[in-house]
Amino acid sequence: MNIRTNILLRVYAAFGLILLFACAVIGKMVHVQVVQGEKYRSMADSLSTKYAEVEAARGNIYSIDGSLLATSVPEYDIRMDLLAGGIEDDQVFYAKVDSLAYDLSRYFNDKSEREYSRLLRNARQDRERYFLLKRDITYQDLKALRKFPIFNLGRYKGGMISVQQNKRILPFRDLASRTIGYYNANSNAAVGLEGAYGDYINGETGKRLVQRIAGGVWMPVNEDAEIAPKDGADIISTIDVNMQDLAQNALKKQLIKSAADFGCVMVMDVKTGEIKAIANYTKVAEDDYQETFNYGIAQSAEPGSTFKLASYLVAIEDGKFGLNDIVTTDGGQYRLYNHTIKDHENEGTIPMKVAFERSSNVAIVKQIYKHYKDNPDAFTSKLKALHLDEKLGLQISGEGAPLIKTTKSKSWSGLTLPQMAYGYELKMTPLQILTLYNAVANNGKMIAPLFVHEIRRLGNTVELFKARTIKEQICSDKTLGLLKEMLEGVVTQGTASAINNPLYKIAGKTGTAQVADGANGYKGKRKYQASFCGYFPADNPKYSMIVVVQNPTKGSYYAAQVAGPVFREIADVVFGSDLNMESNEKLPQLVGNTKLPAVKGGYKKSAQKVYSAFGIKALYASNSQDQMSLDTNNGIAYKEVKLNKGMVPDVVGMGLKDALFVLGNSGLKPVVQGQGTVKNQSLASGTPIYKGTRILIELQ
């Protein structure tokens, strides 16, 4: 083969290879464009744009009286597109950037005008399309920013981008905060009503189209979401704000006084089962208590003497003894299986009713052991028939499991039955104990506690909750009457006589239980739990309540001195504040010329409401009268407060709060001396007012 032919063959081979490669490239291009075109086009779209979820505003949580307990408020992150259409021209941007910096500095007062100007100029040079300017501002702030230079050009021209986020707030701060709870979407953690009713409160998320820009940042394409989120439904809880505040303050005050580890209090409506107040406090530092754990619902522990109600109920219903049966307390010490059961005091020989009122451990142990030792299951089966071994099935999660042992339990021993008789070797939560006492107050009908009254969406009822009956009748009417008699006797002449109130009857039971000291059990440092559970007014029960204080270390550790006062303080205020609450107790009658309490000056409508509520006849008096007078024969006369614009008002006879309100609204600056009721004022009523003039008011 000559040289020429050799060269041509090589050229043809090279050309053929090139042509073959070109055909392969063209074929692949056709395959990608035609066969796989839709796939790669959708992939390209997803890489540059996508739909992001827009969080819905969570529903509100209200108290039963309409007060807002939890709500979502919008907060905004403010970002800026430094290359927006209205400021593409450098001349426009730099002509207004200093004015924008000035307004931002003056409004937020966090950076100087020069610092803001430098930030914006640097962002402009870096060609930022999604520059973060401010975090977590309110809607009012957002409205103000829209009027600033550059931003007032509009969304697309001025470059301001607002990104909304919803922030959960509690208007009453720590009021019932543990019961309200929280929901964390990131960790899926749920506590309290926020977690239990998350399906209702969360709402439905929306969709917003976002696009990826330089730096991998996703920026909204439009200001409004393409699919608007649907806000969550509202929860109407059973909590009463006033009772809740009262319960928290009373409990915290006692915990500080006793230097206790923790405590809880719960108030329950007898007929409806609605929890009106629930407070739980844990000691976090000296004299500092916070809500960190819901003891009332979750803490399953030995209840101590408050459980004696169940023991008496079972034994009386079985006909084992009556209230007048006599028992000898053996000097306050009863030896059984190398274990000594002790009473606080030597009660001697007493009826079983007195034994309950004085909380004799020996008396109930001897009776239960005597009648059930040969058949302990007869006792425990009756406790189970009361559903004391079952959870209440609450509307919120975290309920502690109760424990009622049987002879089949691995830890059953000869001591278990007598120990159970007075509240040991079994476990119940405070709310489970309260439910039993509430059943007695509710004429034997046991109902499950409620925390949510209603669910509403856009003002319309979605679901209304009513009490769920656990047991229609816990015992016979005869036994029920005896139980009520004993519970009232505890307060009138027993261990809780210190909290007796002559204006209304309280029924309940004290409980002072020794609690285990961790791994050391009962052999370690002695710790006690003081509790009081009962209801009021006893002759027409409306509310039941339990108070538990764990390990009081200052003063007494007995329930009557620790838990009892908390119960009495709450009950007194609730009874005094509820005009519809009735008691058959006879109130003191004012007759003849009995002098009524002094009346402060004020507005006629307010006075009329108070007089009407107390059944006092009120008379109209002439406007010339200087102050309200008292006349028990013909009623109480009062005058209307009349304010003349530009004239000094007459505040003599008013309380300080009303006087300050009236004088302040009149343009005067009051100076106060003394305390009580206003007796004198330095400027005569009816004289002209010069704005800002000081007026001295003397109280006595």
From TrEMBL:
PANTHER family: PEPTIDOGLYCAN D,D-TRANSPEPTIDASE (PTHR30627), PEPTIDOGLYCAN D,D-TRANSPEPTIDASE FTSI (PTHR30627:SF1). One of its GO terms (cellular component) is plasma membrane. Its main location: membrane. This is PASTA domain-containing protein. The keyword Transferase does not apply. InterPro entries: Beta-lactam/transpept, Beta-lactam/transpept-like, PASTA_dom, PBP_dimer, PBP_dimer_sf, PCN-bd_Tpept. It is found in: Membrane. GO terms for biological process: cell wall organization. It comes from Pedobacter cryophilus.
